[in-house]
Structure formats: C-alpha cells, structure tokens
Amino acid sequence: MIKDLKISVEEIAKQAGEIIRKSINSNKNIDIQKKGLNDFVTEIDKKSEIFIVNKLKELLPNSGFIAEENTIKTQNREYIWIIDPLDGTMNFIHGLYPCAVSIALMKNNEIILGVVYEIGLDECFSATKNNGAFLNGKKIEVSKTKNLSDSLVGTGFPYNDFKNLGKYLNTLEEFIKNSQGVRRPGSAASDLAYVACGRYDAFFEYNLQSYDVAAGSIILSEAGGKLSDFSNTDNYIFGKEIIGTNPFVFEEVLEIISRNFKL
Q1: Measuring CA to CA, which residue among 55, 62, 159, 157 is closest to residue 103?
Q2: Hey, which of 99, 139, 154, 187 would disulfide with 203, CB 3.0 to 4.6 Å?
Q3: Residue 232: is it exposed, middle or buried by C-beta count within 10 angstroms (0-12/13-18/19+)?
Q4: Domains of the chain
Q5: Which of 27, 39, 221, 25 is nearest to 130 (CA)?
Q6: For residue 196, how many C-alpha atoms fall within 13 Å in the half-sphere facing its CB?
Q7: 0.70 exceeded by the pTM?
C-alpha cells in the first residue's frame, strides 16, 4: 500500500511543481505578503498548498495535516501529512532555483513516506520506510567520503532568528576552513535530498520547521545517511535544527556544531 501511495504522492508533487514553474518567470505580477522579518508567502505558495491538500485528502480521507501556509491544520490523527508547498519561496520571488515541493507522511509520530520534487532540475526524490531512496525512479545512496576535509557541506543562513548568529558564524568559519567548500542554495528540502544522492556529504541548519525537513529526512535516512539535532538526539523533525550527513563524517560535523553551540 505504501509503495502505491508513494507513486501517487510523486505525481501530486510534480503537478504542484508545474503550478510553481509556470509562475516563476512571471512573478512580478504575483501577490507577495510578509509573514515576518525576511519571511514571505506568495499567492503561489497558497495555490500550491490548496492543490496538494485537496489531492492528499482523496488519497487518505481521514488523515491530518501540518501545512506551512495553514490551509488546513489537523494533527490528532493516526496519519498526518507534513507539507511545504514551496520550499525556497525567497528563491522563487527572485526567479531562482532550487525551489521544491515537499510532502511527507507521518504515522504515529514516525515519518514513513517522503517526496521532494525540485522544480528547476525536474528531479523527484522519494522514499518509504525500509524501502530505500530514489531519484526519478533510480536508487540513490549517500557519498562514501570518509573525512570532512574531503567533503562539500550544505547549510542555510539564519534569516530572521539572529540570537545564535555568532555561534553559527563560528561554526561556518570552521567548515569553510576544514572542508572542500560550503554551499547555501536556499531550500532545506533540496539540501537534504542532495546529501541523500551524494552531491553533498553533510548539511546543517537551525530555525527550521517540520515541513522543511520531514520529507528530506526520510529520503536521507533511506539513502544510508545519518541524522540528528545539534544535541545528537532524534528531535530533528520538530526540534528546529538538523544535521544530516553520510555515516562517515557525522562525528566530525557533530563535534564542530556542538562545540560552537556549546551543547
């Protein structure tokens, strides 16, 4: 059942992605609203979310939802969809990629399905619990890079929560000095998927929400990756911080982050 469900969710994510793709080059005429400091939502975020929610309701009529734009929010169910209808809104506003649709399914507090559709490259990453991870239907695995010094690291810059900015900048400096490089594309869902397929060797970010990481986390886990929050516990879905790496560089990455954040 779950594998058949994944196929349907992949198609829904691609259809939502097409809504976004058609609008990205004409976004000068799109209504943009400010939710908070450097935090925006567009009419396309909302349109994509309504489309996704309505389609997912047909797949699992009694399921609940956690969705970024709050089209619907019902959490007290056995099955809960966790949705980011447009991850990378700032990129979208400026006509940049990556932008992604992120859809995860949680059963009794465990993520069992995840789909991340990156619109710019037409890449659909997906996974279900204990069945591996895939990119456009082909199985993917994390990199085999053994050391941080040989690694490419992904991150996300703080954009409205600056209380830990000093700690973050110290951490960033260490990664810049001790890795092959650091990248910040602007979509956490895509970042986690990129670790899953071996483009990055590690990713970290704080001030994230469940809908930013839920789908990407199971894709990375099923690709052989390792995940934690900054304190090396499994509270990375709702804990607002995440580390995702291949299994070889995890300890080095965790040590730098935990030391600089003094956890």
Answers
A1: 55
A2: 154
A3: middle
A4: 2-140 (3.30.540.10), 148-261 (3.40.190.80)
A5: 221
A6: 31
A7: yes
